[in-house]
Amino acid sequence: MKIAVCVSHVPDTATKIKIGSAEKIIDPAGVTYIINPYDEFAVEEALKLKEKFGGDSEVTAVSVGNDANKETIRKALAMGVDKGILLKTDVETDSYFVASALSGELKSGGYDLILFGKQSVDFDNSITGQLTAEMLGYNCISVVVLLNIDGNKITAEREIEGGREVISTELPAVITAQKGLNEPRYASLKGIMAAKKKVIEEKVLTDIQNKTEILKLRLPSPKNPGRIIGTDKSAVPELVRLLREEAKVI
Amino acid sequence: MPKKILIFIEQRENKLKKTSYETATVAHSIASALGYETEAVVIGGEIENINTIQSYGLNKIVHFKNSDLINYSSSAYKNIVSGYAKETGAEYVIFPNSSLGKDLAPLVSVNLNAGIIMDIIDFTINDNTITLTRPVYAGKALMDVKFNSDVKVFTLRPNVFKPVSSDSSTEIEIRNVDNPNLTNRVTESKKSEGKLDVAEADIIVSGGRGMKGPENFHLIEELADALGAAVGASRAVVDAGWRPHREQVGQTGKTVSPSLYVACGISGAIQHLAGMSSAKYIVAINKDKDSPIFNIADYGIAGDIFEILPAFTEEVRKLKA
């Protein structure tokens, strides 16, 4: 089975966001970048499928971005992915750009399955997998928490409001991974050493356009400081009164 | 012919979802500003409450009907919505930012060669150009975005836009769908045991590590029950296996915008605050008065959760009795 896993390089979730000077991106000073947490579930699932299907199964990690993204590709290689591809660009990209770049690269590769995290934790769009699938003409199942592949038949469960849906479709397909799909493995020391010898192929992107434009990035207006209305249960009647009469929410 | 705004309205089990009225209201307001017309697509079998959307200012509703389409099928739905958008020459196509909308909107946008912007919480129109606002970094920042494409697809965050009905009554056209493409489809729906989902709930009662153990979450459930609220959880308690991941609120869980968020025994890690700080009102109950949660709470009680929660539940029950 030939599998691609698309990985994104994002600020650590503990990052306190500061707005950059051009007011279009965050100030990167002091920010630690990591592999997108949801992409770790995608990498783990790719490795489990490779182990299951064996033979000449191969997993390729692909990322769109600048040289810094190599760090995230290396993380996937250290977990056990076979090789990496960096689709290089220095411009700010929207999801359409990223999906166009990925589908352009992946269309001739004969991939049976392409895995993504369900969203990246920076722009939270949750669409790059679906866009890529549609550009490739692949079937797509998003927000997957359970995946079964039998021959070319896929059965998956995806998370929805208040429950799950069981979906049936066929390979080739794109799957986007939700937390709960699996438990990502840690990269072993051996894996980290092996990753240094694995190849990251670099290709420079040209002629791709964004279809949206960021006008301004800003911080939400700070909430007014609230009040502590008590320290024990005697404050409860006042709390309920405020919720009813002042906030009018109950 | 006036230009068109097309909306997708969602049914579940043949009933229109609440977001449908919100989407219709936003479409009507944009159409009024731009001098456009609005149309809606709904896909399903016999939709029980379809007439309730007739008074939300839409110019036309097209019901694509087939009993095999009661359940979602991305392959069939994308063909129908993209096909109708092309037929009408719609410039805007708007979806709810629901699990279905998030799955479907990008597929449609590729078919229409359209730019796509997700999870809109606000918009402005100047000189016939629309600027959309969306939260990024789980709400730690806001981004104003515009389109650079002829056709424009976007999704609206549920619970943010207030539905406003009008006096109009819209014609509903029914089109029977023959042989829908069902290569990708839902074969079964499983409801979770919990009553309400945090992503849709208007009130959320959430528990954190201060609850001390999964056996104490009945206190959260009882208060949620009294308030008609959904139960939420912090990442720490989900990672510890006390609560299922579907309840997790925060940067690697769900980002929520309820009217009321009650944080119990949650100190307020930055990832958690990001996911819930856009709630209209926040109540914090926590022993440590220096917890960061109190910096964003409207009302706080800095005391023993195990004493305060039962009293809170009792007081709400009295009020509702």
Structural features:
heterodimer, A: 250 residues, alpha/beta, nine-stranded mixed beta sheet, two-stranded antiparallel ribbon, 13 strands, globular, B: 321 residues, seven-stranded parallel beta sheet, five-stranded parallel beta sheet, elongated
What does this structure look like?
- The complex is a heterodimer of chains A (250) and B (321).
- Chain A has 250 residues and is α/β, with parallel strands linked by helices.
- Chain A contains six helices and 13 strands.
- Chain A has helices at 37-53, 69-79, 95-106, 128-136, 189-197, 236-246; strands at 2-6, 9-11, 33-35, 58-65, 83-88, 113-117, 139-150, 153-160, 163-170, 173-177, 200-204, 212-218, 227-230.
- In chain A, the strands form two sheets. A nine-stranded mixed sheet of chain A has the order 9-8-7-10-6-1-4-5-11, sandwiched between helices. In chain A, strands 2-3 form a two-stranded antiparallel ribbon.
- In chain A, strand 4, helix 2 (69-79) and strand 5 form a beta-alpha-beta unit.
- Chain A starts with a strand and ends with a helix.
- Chain B is of the alpha/beta class.
- In chain B, 27% of the residues lie in helices and 30% in strands.
- Chain B has eight helices and 18 strands.
- Chain B has helices at residues 19-34, 74-88, 99-111, 218-227, 235-239, 270-276, 293-296, 305-320, and strands at 4-9, 11-12, 15-16, 37-44, 60-65, 92-96, 115-120, 122-126, 129-136, 141-147, 152-156, 171-176, 185-191, 203-207, 230-233, 260-264, 281-285, 299-301.
- A seven-stranded parallel sheet of chain B has the order 7-11-6-1-4-5-12, with helices on both faces. In chain B, strands 15-14-16-17-18 form a five-stranded parallel sheet.
- In chain B, a hairpin with a 2-residue loop joins strand 8 (122-126) and strand 9 (129-136).
- The longest helix of chain B is centred in the N-terminal third of the chain and has 16 residues, at 19-34.
- Chain B is elongated.
- Strand 13 (227-230) of chain A pairs parallel with strand 18 of chain B.
